[in-house]
Automatic annotation (TrEMBL):
Keyword DNA repair applies: no
Name used for this protein in its record: Phospholipid-transporting ATPase
EC number: 7.6.2.1
PROSITE patterns: ATPASE_E1_E2
Record field: transmembrane: 96-112, 315-337, 368-390, 926-944, 950-970, 1000-1024, 1036-1056, 1068-1086, 1106-1124
Protein's cellular compartments: Membrane
Species of origin: Leersia perrieri
Keywords linked to the UniProt accession: ATP-binding, Magnesium, Membrane, Metal-binding, Nucleotide-binding, Translocase, Transmembrane, Transmembrane helix
Main subcellular location of this protein, as a coarse class: membrane
Gene Ontology BP term (one): phospholipid translocation
Active site per database record: D436
GO terms for MF: ATP binding; ATPase-coupled intramembrane lipid transporter activity; magnesium ion binding
Membrane topology term: Multi-pass membrane protein
Lineage: Eukaryota, Viridiplantae, Streptophyta, Embryophyta, Tracheophyta
Length: 1199
């Protein structure tokens, strides 16, 4: 890496002098610094839980005892080289069927087995081996992803002030690292210095807490001189801090450096998997590595999940095993009776030479041995190929997921990656979706669309919600399904709502400027100077250009300005200001510079504004202010924030535009836009000086009340504001997100959001994604803070309660009030949204309160949990999974979501037809296995099988396996396009229509009937009937082969009748399986090893018409009842997909559009969230305007 240390940014910004709340640094003193451990609760260092010692720039100490800290190598795999075999084998034999076949495989080596050992061991080895290979391949993929992370490179100090690049996995505790802009932090670091002069850096923590807003971190004052590579040549220090733990937002420790002790708090800690932004580089020392890092502490070992269907399969196998034991007992008792009473009479069997397996003098012992024989003989009731077929289907489904063109990201070139296929079928059963940061659905791009200035609304563009509402009303059919995709494919110039009232959809130029979709000639190209309130408009634009914390950067390639902003909103405002003619182009330590294009007659003018104070935004304040001095010496306070916060701080003479602005804000909210109010205040020099003195005292104070003092002093100046206007930006969602959420809602799925975002951010994103909408009643659960905490604490002391108990009582009261509000609501269209923060969630998840919280959440249309830790995400997921008792799906985008994803039933999968597939497996094995029992009883419980060993070996593995695999992989009752038009079809999965006990028992009964028909019809036909030209009757081999032929035909015809969607693959597998049987019997019959089956088809059965007639008769007898059943069901009691299939087959969707739309409207679950619900609300608003007999209503759209 060499000497790439380099210098600082030219502007040498000292942000700590501007930031009020984030960048406070306690001044250091000699000895125990004022900011030492005692000042920050650091006295715990050295005690239990605080024993970590880090020798800075001396990593060798930590590689050996007594410290011996773990390396920075991480692994998320389920197995390693040593554990793969024992763990994978354990996983396979958790399945009861495999355990049974292991026992029979062992017993096949004894004389009691009626089959050869190979025929029992080979299928088990094949099934278990294939499943283990699949597990190994999937874990190998996880291993390769881990290696990509472990092999990332970072600059590390190697000594003598020189840095070199090393792999992440080679880092050790104590190493000094240099992380550059847009790189991830390789471990948990103590920030030493940065490219900014006072050690400030910006960090993106999206992978940790889901927040897109940048966090400000700052180094200790004492380490600021460590600003070059060479300065680390003699750097030494000792860090004493807390032991590894999962708490992302806390840190306790101190730094011993140059004989002084300095307290370390979370503002100096850079966590692994967060990213350096807006900062050229930072230096840091490694504190926690690998699995000791906080993000890895929040992860858990990869669990072995089993799907609901697989667990139900085990229950069915228990039932079949019980049947197997029952008929085996019957067989053994029958055998013992025949041995005792009949064997002595059968002189031709030479009973005097009998062994212990059939000793007439000890029938009980012989019966016990025969029980083991029967358990093996009837083992075909248990489908050994079921698991491997399901595994193969899942692997193929995962392959199709990875190759799905609809899941391909054109921007990155990435396809979907199914890391595991174990739980594919579960997505068809999902009841509740728990999603991390809904912002992962957004592009993190805000588009400036509209604004209100001086009581006048500007901007003719319209949002997706407005256009969809207009189209919906124009259809004249309230039941029509809203086509969300039409919003992006609008080709109409005018939409007629009712006679005489139209929506005019203006075809305006689509903006080529990212973040700016505003269109209104009244403000563009300097035309705003002709407006009546041009002075207010000028102030509005200056607020956009000045009230922020962004940094301008020049693109070296194009020369264009870009902005590094803390939030997407700020970026959009700056782009808008530039397009309006107010370009923010430079920032120094004390000033911001704006190039104004239309404020002077002599062309562009560069103006300097001195920054006096910056009161930054946070979720509690919900506003941001900057205090400036302009070129005329006037002191201005510019403030932007939530309208509710700004309006309550307006002066009496500052409310001139309040009524009109409020109306515009409501309209923007109805249109799905995010809004902020803008205001200002002119300050006198004396007033500002007095306030600033008090502000500085609060800023430099030490103690737990410092933040409260700062907020109080800030609140004093942010009063008597004058309203200027409001902004409306559109949170651009990724393509398809509105349709996705809308369809999920219409399909009846509940959606919860679990995010580390601040409450305000999460709520805004909820609005953008239509999980929240205007008019929804919000129930906010939070723990009171500030003065309320003090009051509650006093009450708590009086009532002998602790502060925590008081907070808990307050939360219980909030939950009770929320539940009462929901119960008393009379309006059926009323929708409630529950929002809860992390502190409140801590109490809500306790045993005595969690069910109250869950019951309230279930009653709400949307649930948003903010500021939650990864552990809390997992706990909420567990509460929902166990409390509701339905399948949960977790969606996450970062390392902080691992616990939640592992706790949920599934991560991601596809909806298949595994229920039908499994039912068919049990059907065919019952139909086949019971014929063996019937023949054994027919043959005097002799233990004789009617089928050749090779027939039984190939039955499950070859001759009937491929059709059922094709059913699982390719079957679709209706196309994916139809599914999107009829979202309620999804409820067939959660309602378990295809795998309930009624259907399972029905298929078992079908198998029982088929076994009876196959056995007794063949016995009746061949009992004393000649089948050869010489008059010979059928022997056991001929009867067994004929019965097996009937089984192959019957079960393959059965699966053909269950299929709704045929491709050439299904035809090949179904009819190819039948053809394979005939090919096999010809080849096998030509081999001398076939014994009794020698030339069985070509010479014995093939020439006999009776064989072909019996095959046709038995196949028809087995399948006609099922054909009658499905015909009756489709005619008299059809399921939803049956109706749709018939409509499509008869082309009624083309011939009768009205009927098709009516059926589509029926197939939508009534929902109070999603794009459709928001459009419905917009329609009510439009109709309200129509009732007032408005002559026309115009909406313009940008395209």
């Amino acid at each position: 890496m060499g000497r790439t240390g380099g210098g600082r940014r030219r502007d040498r910004l000292r942000w700590s002098k501007l930031y009020t709340f984030s960048c406070f640094r306690t001044p250091a003193t000699s000895g125990d610094a004022a900011g030492g451990p005692s000042a920050h609760g650091g006295s715990a260092v050295g005690g239990p839980g605080f024993t970590r010692v880090v020798h800075c720039n001396n990593s060798a100490v930590h590689r050996r005892k007594p410290l011996k800290y773990p390396t920075n190598y991480i692994s998320t795999t389920k197995y390693n080289v040593l554990t793969f075999l024992p763990k994978a084998i354990f996983e396979q034999f958790r399945r009861v069927a495999n355990l049974y076949f292991l026992l029979t495989a062992i017993l096949s080596l004894t004389p009691v087995c009626p089959f050869s050992a190979v025929s029992m061991i080979a299928p088990l080895a094949f099934v278990v081996g294939l499943s283990m290979i699949k597990e190994g391949v999937e874990d190998w993929r996880r291993f390769m992803q881990d290696m990509k992370v472990n092999n990332r490179k970072v600059g590390v100090h190697k000594g003598d002030g020189e840095f070199e690049y090393r792999h992440w996995e080679d880092l050790a505790v104590g190493d000094v690292v240099k992380v550059e802009k847009d790189q991830f932090f390789p471990a948990d670091l103590l920030l030493l210095s940065s490219s900014y002069e006072d050690g400030i850096c910006y960090v993106e923590t999206m992978n940790l807490d889901g927040e897109t807003n940048l966090k400000v971190k700052r180094s200790l004052e004492v380490t600021l001189p460590l600003e070059e590579d060479e300065s680390f040549k003699d750097f030494r220090g000792i860090i004493r801090c807390e032991d590894p733990n999962p708490n992302l937002y806390t840190f306790v420790g101190n730094l011993e450096y140059e004989r002084q002790i300095y307290a370390i708090d979370p503002f100096q800690i850079l966590l692994r998997d967060s990213k350096l932004r807006n900062t050229s580089f930072i230096y840091g020392v490694v504190i926690f590595t690998g699995h000791d890092s906080k993000v890895m502490q929040n992860s858990t070992e990869s669990p072995s999940k089993r799907s609901t269907i697989e667990k139900k399969m085990d229950m069915i196998i228990y039932i079949l095993f019980s049947v197997l034991v029952l008929i085996s007992l019957i067989s053994s008792i029958g055998f013992a009776v025949r041995i005792k009473f009949d064997l002595p009479k059968w002189w031709y069997l030479q009973p005097e030479k009998a062994n212990k397996l059939d000793d007439p003098t000890r029938p009980a012992l012989s019966g016990i041995f025969h029980l083991i024989t029967a358990l093996i003989l009837y083992g075909y009731l248990i489908p050994i190929s079921l698991y491997v077929s399901i595994e193969l289907v899942k692997v193929l489904q995962a392959h199709f997921i990875n190759q799905d063109i609809h899941m391909f990201d054109e921007d990155t070139g990435n396809t979907a990656q199914a890391r595991t296929s174990n739980l594919n079928e579960e997505l068809g059963q999902v009841h509740t979706i728990l999603s991390d940061k809904t912002g992962t659905l957004t592009c993190n791009q805000m588009d400036f669309l509209k604004c209100s200035i001086a009581g006048v609304s500007y901007g003719v563009g319209s949002s997706e919600v407005e256009i969809a509402a207009a189209k919906h009303m124009a259809s004249g059919n309230d039941d029509q399904d809203i086509q969300v995709q039409d919003v992006w494919e609008n080709n109409e110039d005018e939409i007629q709502l009712v006679e005489g009232v139209t929506f005019s959809v203006g075809r305006t130029r689509k903006s080529s400027v990212k973040g700016f979709s505003f269109e209104d000639d009244r403000l563009m190209q300097g035309n705003w100077t002709n407006e009546p309130n041009s002075s207010t408009i000028l102030l509005f634009f200056r607020i956009l250009a000045l009230c922020h914390t962004a940094i301008p950067e020049v693109n070296e390639a194009t020369g264009a300005l870009t902005y590094e902003a803390e939030s997407p909103d700020e970026g959009a405002f700056l782009v808008a200001a530039r397009e309006f003619g107010f370009e923010f182009f430079k920032r120094t330590q004390s000033s911001v510079f704006v190039r104004e294009n239309f404020t002077a007659s002599n062309g562009p003018t560069e103006r300097e504004f001195k920054v006096l104070n910056l009161l930054e935004f946070n979720s509690k304040r919900k506003r941001m202010s900057v205090i400036l001095k302009d070129e005329d010496g006037q002191i201005l306070l510019l403030c932007k924030g939530a309208d509710s916060i700004i309006f309550e701080r307006l002066a009496k003479n500052g409310r001139v535009f309040e009524a009109d602005t409020t109306k515009h804000l409501n309209d923007y909210g109805e249109a799905g836009l995010r809004t902020l109010a803008l205001s200002y205040r002119v300050l006198d020099e004396s007033e500002y000086s007095a306030w600033n003195a008090e502000f500085l005292r609060a800023k430099t104070s030490i103690g737990p009340d410092r933040e409260l003092q700062l907020e109080h002093v800030s609140d004093l100046i942010e009063r008597e504001l004058i309203l200027v206007g409001a902004t409306a930006v559109e949170d651009k969602l990724q393509k398809g997100v509105p349709q996705c959420i809308d369809r999920l809602a219409q399909a009846g799925l509940k959606i919860w959001v679990l995010t580390g975002d601040k409450m305000e951010t999460a709520i805004n994103i909820g609005y953008a994604c239509s999980l929240l909408r205007q008019g929804m009643r919000r129930i906010c659960l939070s723990i009171p803070t500030g003065d309320q905490v003090a009051q509650d604490a006093k009450k708590a002391l009086l009532s002998s309660l602790t502060t925590d108990q008081a907070a808990k009582e307050s939360l219980m009261l909030q939950i009770a009030n929320g539940s009462q509000m929901v119960k008393l609501e009379k309006d059926p269209d009323a929708a409630f949204a529950l929002v809860i923060d992390g502190k409140a969630l801590t109490f809500a998840l306790e045993d005595d309160m969690k069910h109250m919280f869950l019951n309230l959440a279930i009653e709400c249309a949307s649930v948003i949990c903010c500021r939650v830790s990864p552990k809390q995400k997992a706990l909420v997921t567990r509460l929902v999974k166990e409390g509701i008792g339905k399948t949960t799906l977790a969606i996450g985008d970062g390392a902080n979501d691992v616990g939640m994803i592992q706790e949920a039933d599934i991560g991601v999968g596809i909806s298949g037809v595994e229920g039908m597939q499994i039912c068919y497996f049990f059907y065919k094995n019952i139909a086949f296995g019971l014929t063996i029992f019937y023949f054994e009883a027919f043959a005097g419980f002799s233990g004789q099988s009617v089928y050749d060993d090779w027939f039984m070996l190939l039955f499950n593995v070859v001759l009937t396996s491929l059709p059922v695999i094709s059913l699982g992989v390719f079957e679709q009752d209706v196309s994916s396009e139809i599914c999107l038009q009829f979202p309620a079809l999804y409820q067939q999965g959660p309602k378990n229509l295809f795998f309930d006990w009624y259907r399972i028992l029905g298929w078992m009964a079908n198998g029982l009937y088929s076994s009876l028909a196959i056995f007794f019809l063949n016995i009746c036909i061949f009992y004393d009937q000649a089948i050869r030209s010489g008059g010979q009757t059928a022997d056991m081999a001929a009867v067994g082969t004929t019965m097996f032929t009937c089984i192959i035909w019957a079960v393959n015809m059965q699966i053909a009748l269950t299929m709704s969607h045929f491709t050439w693959i299904q035809h090949l597998f179904v009819w190819g399986s039948v053809g394979t049987w005939y090919l096999f019997i010809i080849v096998y019959g030509s081999a001398l090893r076939s014994r009794d089956n020698y030339q069985i088809l070509l010479e014995v059965l093939g020439p006999a018409p009776l064989y072909w007639a019996a095959t046709l008769l038995v196949t028809a007898a087995c399948n006609i009842p099922y054909l009658i059943h499905i015909s009756y069901q489709r005619s008299c009691n059809p399921l939803d997909h049956h109706v749709i299939q018939e409509i499509k087959y008869l082309k009624k969707d083309v011939e009768d559009q009205t009927m098709w739309k009516r059926e589509r409207s029926k197939a939508r679950q009534r929902t109070k969230i999603g794009f459709t619900a928001r459009v419905d609300a917009k329609i009510k608003q439009i109709r309200g305007k129509l009732h007032k007999k408005a002559p026309s209503l115009t909406i313009h759209t940008v395209s």
